[in-house]
Write a structure and sequence with these properties.
It is built from eight helices and 15 strands. It has helices at 40-45, 108-111, 114-126, 144-155, 167-177, 202-209, 257-270, 286-294; strands at 2-6, 14-18, 28-38, 58-65, 78-82, 91-95, 99-101, 135-138, 159-163, 181-183, 192-197, 211-219, 244-247, 277-282, 301-305. The longest helix has 14 residues, at 257-270. Helix 3 packs across helix 4 (144-155) and helix 3 packs across helix 7 (257-270). Strands 3, 4, 5, 6, 7, 14 and 15 form a seven-stranded mixed sheet that branches. The protein has a six-stranded parallel sheet with strand order 10-9-8-11-12-13, sandwiched between helices. A two-stranded antiparallel ribbon has the order 1-2. The relative contact order is 0.16. The structure holds NADP nicotinamide-adenine-dinucleotide phosphate. Residues 39-41, 116-117, 120, 140-146, 164-166, 170, 198-199, 220-224, 248-250, 296, 299 line the site of NADP nicotinamide-adenine-dinucleotide phosphate (NAP).
């Protein structure tokens, strides 16, 4: 099969080449991949992978061989899939617990953005508890996870405060997604019940300071790469008790992932959720797409089509 392979002699550590077809385990379906989306975390990890490896987390496609143990969808079903490798290839063997059926006829390009970005947004919001009539802060709101988190928090009945480094340029778009307020990194807003935190550094510290008693901050990512330095007073609970900072890792976020991916994919297919695709093109242009994403020129998701 053709695949995007790790090649450390290539400028972006990737080249389109030939790799052996994957051999599915009994609880894995074999999927013919139609589209994959890129995540910043997997791109920065490429330099550490062995040459010849087939990376990739997100893929959407069609089942060409159902799992031998009888789990998961039948041959011919369109699906969205998550794994820690193997998405950037014509064929992917994927655990049936980590795939979800997709409505027939759906455009698999935007659907391929669902696993990491929308899955993380949904499951991070679950950790905040009920959202109806609560104030929720989303940092890094213009990114892949952030855009989905804004939309999902709004659907769940929260008052949504979106944080972006560029409020002037991004406010209209974020309000269109459902944000009630758009603020800059100074986080000039009232206290909140919950935070989906994607930026790290001083933004994490400032977001924690906004938490109400009993509030939760889910630290999902650290897009800025910055360090977070707290004063001891941040953790004195006399006046602001029971505030929690918790960590998050999507593949270890508990059972039911396939059902969550299916629910999210159906909403993208119907247009209820906007996948925010900022770049879409052939996987033969992968270098161009990777460069645009890593250079910070894009806000939103990159989709590669396996044509
Ligand atoms: N733990 C997990 O399981 C998990 C799952 C998914 C993602 N993540 C992590 O979550 C973070 C967000 O992921 P994503 O896919 O949404 O990333 P993304 O599409 O690149 O978006 C990140 C957003 O963060 C903001 N940002 C602020 N300072 C930045 C900086 N110095 N460099 C880049 N972005 C900056 C940007 O929004 P503004 O300019 O509008 O502020 C940007 O749109 C990443 O760190 C990713 O690795 C973790």
């Amino acid at each position: 099969m053709r695949a995007l392979l790790v090649d450390h002699s290539a400028p972006r550590h990737l080249r389109l080449g030939e790799a052996p077809d994957p051999v599915p385990a009994p609880d894995q379906a074999l999927v013919r991949v139609a589209a994959t989306s890129l995540n910043p975390g997997e791109l920065t990890a490429l330099a550490d992978l062995p040459g010849g490896a087939v990376p990739g987390w997100d893929a959407a496609g069609v089942v060409v061989r159902a799992a031998a143990d009888g789990s998961g969808p039948a041959e011919g079903a369109p699906v969205v899939t998550l794994g820690l490798a193997g998405a950037w290839a014509e064929l992917r063997a994927v655990d049936t617990a980590h795939l979800g059926p997709v409505p027939g006829g759906a455009d698999l390009g935007p659907i391929s953005t669902v696993p990491v970005a929308a899955g993380s947004a949904l499951r991070a919001l679950h950790r905040l508890g009920p959202l109806l009539a609560r104030r929720v802060l989303v940092t890094g709101a213009t990114g892949g996870v952030g855009r989905y988190a804004v939309q999902l928090a709004r659907r769940a009945g929260a008052h949504v405060v979106a944080v972006t480094s560029d409020p002037a340029g991004s406010a209209d778009g974020l309000r269109a997604l459902g944000a009630h307020e758009v603020v800059g990194p100074d986080l000039a807003t009232e206290p909140v019940h919950g935070v989906v935190e994607l930026v790290g550094g001083p933004v994490l510290v400032a977001a924690h300071a906004l938490l109400l008693p009993g509030g939760t901050l889910v630290s999902v990512g650290r897009a800025s790469g910055g360090e977070s330095v707290f004063t001891g007073a941040a953790f004195e609970g006399t006046f602001l008790p029971d505030r929690v900072i918790t960590t998050f890792f999507l593949p270890a976020s508990g059972p039911g992932l396939g059902a969550d991916l299916a629910w999210l994919a159906a909403r993208v297919a119907s247009g209820e959720l906007d996948a925010g695709v900022a770049w879409r093109g052939s996987w033969t242009r992968a270098d161009e797409a990777v460069a645009a994403l890593l250079d910070g020129r894009l806000r939103g998701k990159v989709v590669l089509e396996l044509d």
